[in-house]
Design brief:
31% of the residues lie in helices and 27% in strands. The protein is α+β, with helices and mostly antiparallel strands. The protein folds into 2 domains: 60 residues; 379 residues, no CATH class. The strands form 3 sheets. Strands 1, 2, 3, 8, 9, 10, 11, 12, 13, 14, 15, 16 and 17 form a 13-stranded antiparallel sheet that branches. A two-stranded antiparallel sheet has the order 4-5. It has a two-stranded antiparallel ribbon with strand order 6-7. It is elongated. Pfam families: CD36 (PF01130).
C-alpha cells in the first residue's frame, strides 16, 4: 500500500470515528429525552403509578413539635414593661397523615381527596408531660371577644361578662389544654345565647383525626408541570379572605407533592390552609440527604414583606389601617375575627422592631427557617421543616382600661413539622435515579469508548508511520564512490574491483 493510500485510509477511519461520536451524542440526547418523558408518565397521581400509593399514605415518619412561650412578668408587662418570655419545648407528636375518600375525576386528569391527620404524643422526644406542664400566656378567647366588641352596648356587655366570669388578660393552662382544648368560661357564657359559638378553645382543637376539607388535585397526566397542583379547595378555585384577586389565588401544590424535573430558577408555590393563602419558595442551595441529591427551596423575605417592601402583598392587609410590617401576616379573616398574627419562629425574617420588643426572642436561620429539600429528577421530598409561629396582636382597646399600655405582637407558640425520607423510600429513589443515570448516559459511554478507540488508532497510526520512516532510512541506496555520484546514467554504472591473480 502506497503512502498516499495509507493517508486516505487513515482519514477515512478518523472520519468514521467522528461520525460515530456525532451519532452517539445525538442518540444520548434522544435517550435522555425519552427517559424524561418516561418519568413524566410514571410520576402521575393515578392507580398503578410509582408514586400513587406513597402519595395516599406517605411512609416517612412526620413529627410535629410544639414550643410554647411562658411569660414571667405579667404585672410589669401590663404596666408598660417589655414582656419576658421563656421558650418551653419541644412537645413532640408523631403525625400520621393519609389521603381519605380518594376518587378520580375528569377522566383521570384530576383526583379528589381529604388530607386526614392524627397525632400521638412521644414522651421520649419531649421535654415534659403536656398534661402536667403549665404555661402562662395570652387569654386568646378573651382577646377575641374584646376585639369584636364594637360600640358602647357591646363593650358594656363584654365588661359585664369579664367581671362575672373572672376572666383575665393572661391565663395559666397546661400544654394539653392549650393544644387540644379546654372549656373557657367566657365562651361558655356567650354560647348560652349564641349556640354557634364553641365553648371549647384550643390551638389544635378539632385538628386530631380530622381534615382541612376536600382538595382536588391535577394528576399530571396532561402536563407533568401540573402534577399535584391544587385545582380547588372546599369546592372553590380561589379564596375570599383577602382584598385582591392575586392574594386570593390558590396556586401550586399542598406541600405533599411536586412535579419532576425541577429547575433551580423556578418558584415553588404552596397553598397552605393554616395561613389561609398561597406562599412561594425559591432555590437556596444544593444539598444531599441519605445519598440523594436535592435542591433546597425556602421562602424569601418577600413572602411576608410589608406592602411598602413588596406591593403585591397589599391585598393581605385586613384593612388599610391594619397593614403590619415585614415578617407578619394577620390571619383574623380566616380565624373568626380573632387577632391572630402568623410569622416565622422568633420573628425570623421580620423587621427588627418585633423581636426587639420581646425579651427572649432570638431569630436564627438554623432553627427557625422553613425549607424543602426536593430531589430535582423525581420531585420527591427528601427532607422538610415547616416552621410557623402563632402570635396575638395586643393593642389598646377603647372601653377596656387594662389594655391602655399594650401595643405588642405577642408570641404564643411555634410549631416545627419535620420529615426526613426513610431508608426504604431512599433506597427506591436511589434505584430509580441509578436507572435514569445509566439509561441516559449509556450512549455517552459508547461515545467515550469511541473517542478512546480513535485516540488509540491515531497513536498506532503515528507509531507505524514513524517505524516505516525509520526502516526506509536504514535501506536507502548510497553511492559506492565519487565516480558513481558523477555518473550521468544515474547510478547504472557498477564499479568492479579486479580479482587478484592466484599465481601472482
Amino acid at each position: 500500500m502506497t503512502r498516499r493510500s495509507c493517508a486516505v485510509y487513515a482519514v477515512g477511519i478518523i472520519c468514521a470515528h467522528l461520525l460515530v461520536i456525532g451519532i452517539g451524542l445525538f442518540v444520548a440526547q434522544t435517550f435522555r429525552t425519552l427517559m424524561h418523558n418516561r418519568l413524566k408518565k410514571e410520576i402521575v397521581l393515578v392507580e398503578g403509578s410509582r408514586v400513587f400509593a406513597s402519595w395516599k399514605t406517605p411512609p416517612p415518619p412526620v413529627y410535629m413539635e410544639f414550643f410554647f412561650f411562658n411569660v414571667t412578668n405579667v404585672p410589669e408587662f401590663l404596666e408598660g414593661a417589655k414582656p419576658v418570655l421563656n421558650q418551653v419545648g419541644p412537645y413532640t407528636y408523631r403525625e400520621y397523615r393519609y389521603k381519605d375518600n380518594v376518587s378520580m375525576v375528569e377522566n383521570d386528569t384530576m383526583v379528589s381527596a381529604y388530607n386526614t391527620k392524627s397525632f400521638v404524643f412521644m414522651r421520649e422526644r419531649s421535654v415534659g408531660d403536656p398534661a402536667e406542664d403549665n404555661i402562662t400566656t395570652v387569654n386568646i378567647p378573651l382577646w377575641a371577644v374584646m376585639s369584636k366588641a364594637k360600640g358602647f352596648m357591646k363593650v358594656t356587655m363584654a365588661n359585664f361578662m369579664i367581671s362575672a366570669t373572672g376572666s383575665q388578660l393572661f391565663i395559666t393552662r397546661s400544654v394539653d389544654e392549650l393544644l387540644w382544648g379546654y372549656e373557657d368560661p367566657m365562651l361558655s357564657r356567650i354560647s348560652q345565647s349564641s349556640p354557634e359559638v364553641e365553648k371549647i378553645f384550643g390551638l389544635m382543637y378539632k385538628k386530631n383525626g380530622t381534615n382541612d376539607g376536600e382538595f382536588v388535585y391535577h394528576t399530571g397526566v396532561q402536563n407533568y408541570m401540573d402534577y399535584g397542583r391544587v385545582e380547588t379547595w372546599k369546592g372553590q378555585s380561589e379564596l375570599t379572605f383577602w382584598s385582591t384577586e392575586q392574594s386570593n389565588s390558590i396556586n401550586g401544590s399542598d406541600g405533599s407533592a411536586f412535579h419532576p424535573l425541577l429547575d433551580k430558577n423556578e418558584r415553588i408555590y404552596i397553598f397552605t390552609p393554616d395561613l389561609c393563602r398561597t406562599i412561594y419558595m425559591e432555590f437556596e442551595k444544593d444539598v444531599e440527604v441519605n445519598g440523594i441529591p436535592a435542591y433546597r427551596f425556602t421562602p424569601p423575605r418577600s413572602v411576608l414583606a410589608s406592602k411598602e417592601e413588596n406591593p403585591a402583598n397589599e391585598g393581605f392587609c385586613v384593612t388599610p389601617q391594619e397593614c403590619l410590617g415585614t415578617g407578619l401576616l394577620k390571619v383574623s379573616p380566616c380565624r373568626k375575627g380573632a387577632p391572630v398574627v402568623a410569622s416565622f419562629p422568633h420573628f425570623y425574617l421580620a423587621d427588627d422592631q418585633y423581636p426587639d420588643a420581646i425579651e427572649g426572642m432570638s431569630p436564627q436561620r438554623e432553627h427557625h427557617q422553613t425549607f424543602l429539600d426536593l430531589n430535582p429528577t423525581t420531585g420527591v421530598i427528601v427532607r422538610a421543616n415547616k416552621r410557623a409561629q402563632i402570635n396575638i396582636l395586643l393593642s389598646r382597646m377603647s372601653g377596656f382600661p387594662k389594655t391602655r399600655n399594650l401595643n405588642t405582637v405577642f408570641p404564643v407558640m411555634f410549631l416545627n413539622e419535620s420529615v426526613v425520607i426513610d431508608d426504604a423510600s431512599a433506597a427506591k429513589v436511589q434505584k430509580l435515579l441509578l436507572i435514569v443515570t445509566l439509561v441516559s448516559n449509556f450512549p455517552l459511554i459508547i461515545v467515550g469508548l469511541g473517542v478512546i478507540m480513535l485516540f488509540v488508532f491515531i497513536i498506532l497510526l503515528l507509531r507505524a508511520r514513524r517505524q516505516k520512516t525509520s526502516a526506509e532510512d536504514d535501506t536507502s541506496y548510497s553511492p559506492v564512490n565519487d565516480k558513481e555520484k558523477d555518473d550521468p546514467q544515474n547510478g547504472t554504472y557498477i564499479g568492479l574491483t579486479p580479482k587478484p591473480d592466484p599465481q601472482a
